[in-house]
Amino acid sequence: MFSAALIAGLILLVLSSDKFIEHAALVAEKLNVSPIVIGITLVALGTSAPEMVVSAIAALDNAPGIAVGNVIGSNIANIGLVFGATLVLAAVPINGSLIKKEIPLVIFVTLLAGFLMIDQHLSLTDGVALIIAFLIVLYLLLKNSKNLEDELTEDLPEDDGGSVARSLLIAGVGLAVLIGSSKLLVWGAIGIASALGVSDLIIGLTIVAIGTSLPELAASIASVKKGHHDIAIGNVLGSNIFNLATVLPLPAILAPGLIEETVINRDYWWMLGFTLLFSIAVIIYSKHRSLSIPRWFAVPLLGGYGAYMYLLAISG
Description:
Elements: H1 2-30, H2 35-46, H3 49-60, H4 64-89, E1 92-93, H5 97-100, H6 102-117, E2 121-122, H7 124-142, H8 148-153, H9 164-196, H10 200-225, H11 231-247, H12 249-254, E3 257-258, H13 261-286, E4 292-293, H14 298-315
Antiparallel strand pairs: 1-4, 2-3
Helix pairs in contact: 1-2, 1-9, 1-10, 3-4, 3-9, 4-10, 4-11, 4-13, 4-14, 6-7, 6-11, 6-13, 7-11, 9-10, 10-11
C-alpha cells in the first residue's frame, strides 16, 4: 500500500507540477503581468517546484528527514545520476559564461548551506539567510544580461486561446493535485521507512530525491536528443542552486528544529564533493580544445552515485 502510494504520488507530482506552472503563467500573461516578472517566477519555480512542495508537506507532517533529505539527495542525483546519464548519450558542450556566473554561485550556495547546517539545526534565521542568498543569486544571474527580457521570456507558454477562467481552473486543479500528490508521496515514504525500519532521511535521500529529480532527467535527455546539449549543464546548475536557496528554507521556516547528525557528517560532504567534481570538470574542459565534457566522465559520476547509494543501503 505504501509503495503504491509513493509511486502514484511521484507520477501525479510530476504531471501536476508541469500543468500548474504552465497555466499559472498563462493566467498571468492574460492578466497582462509583465513577461519579465513571469519569467523570473518560472526561473525560480520551474526547476524546483516538486522539491518545494514535497519538502514543505514533509516539514508540516513532522518528517524533517524527508524534507532535508529530498534537497540534498536531489542535488546529488542531479549531478551523479541525471548528468551522468546525459553524458552516456553524448558529450556535453560548455558555455563559457557558466564559469563566470553559475559555477561560483552553486559553490557559494552549497558552502553557505553547509555553514548553516553545521550546528545540526535548521532555524528560522537559517531559512531567511538562504532566501536572502536566493535574491542575491537571482540578481547576479540576471545582472548585465544583454538580452534579459528575451532570456526570461523564451520559455513562456504560448497563448492557448482559452479564457482566463479556464486557465485559472486548470492551474487551481494542478495546484490541488500537486499538494495532494505530495501529501500522498510523503505518507507513502514515511510508511515505507517505518516498515523497513530505516529513517525517513534515507527514504528522502533515495526514493523521494530520485523521484523529484525525474523532471530534470527527462529535460536533460530530451535536450540532448534535440541537439541542445549545452542546456544540460545549465539545468543541473540551476536546479541545484534553487534547491538549496528556495527549497531548503522551507523546513527551516515551517518547522525549524534539529536535523540528523548524518546529514552534515555524511550526506552534505557527498553533495559538496559532487558539486566540486562537477565544477572542476566544467572549468577544466572549458579550456580544452573540444570545449565539452567527454562521455567517459559519466563513469565517475554514475559510479560515485552508485557508491553513495550502496553506502546508504548498508548504513540503513
